[in-house]
Amino acid sequence: MDTIWMAQGNCADAPPSTFFPSDGVGVEVARRICGTCPVKDQCLEHALESRIDHGVWGGCSERERRRILKRRRDLALSATR
Ligand code: SF4
């Protein structure tokens, strides 16, 4: 798995706890940092492919990632019909 991109993320020098918030305010703080991250797309795909349940990855919360995965499953299903 290629994870070289991780060192290029805006979070490289931030405390990891920033990206594992316990409330909505914390999620917004993390999302703001992710918003300008140059490896945001790789980060989000990594979290989706690895089925990472916790934390903010690629600017998306757990709930948002679940929605993206559901949408992709639904699309894949409809493509087979
Ligand atoms: S998108 Fe966010 S969590 Fe991912 S590498 Fe960038 S700053 Fe870090």
TrEMBL record:
Pfam family, one: Whib
GO biological process: cell redox homeostasis; negative regulation of DNA-templated transcription
Keyword Electron transport: no
Stretch forming the signal peptide: none
The organism's taxonomic lineage, starting at the top: unclassified sequences, metagenomes, ecological metagenomes
HAMAP family, alphabetized: WhiB
Metal-binding listed as a keyword: yes
Name listed for the protein in its UniProt record: Unannotated protein
Membership in a protein family: Belongs to the WhiB family.
Single annotated GO MF: protein-disulfide reductase [NAD(P)H] activity
Cofactor(s) needed for function: [4Fe-4S] cluster
Assigned keywords, A-Z: 4Fe-4S, Disulfide bond, DNA-binding, Iron, Iron-sulfur, Metal-binding, Transcription, Transcription regulation
Record-annotated 4Fe-4S Wbl-type domain positions: 10-67
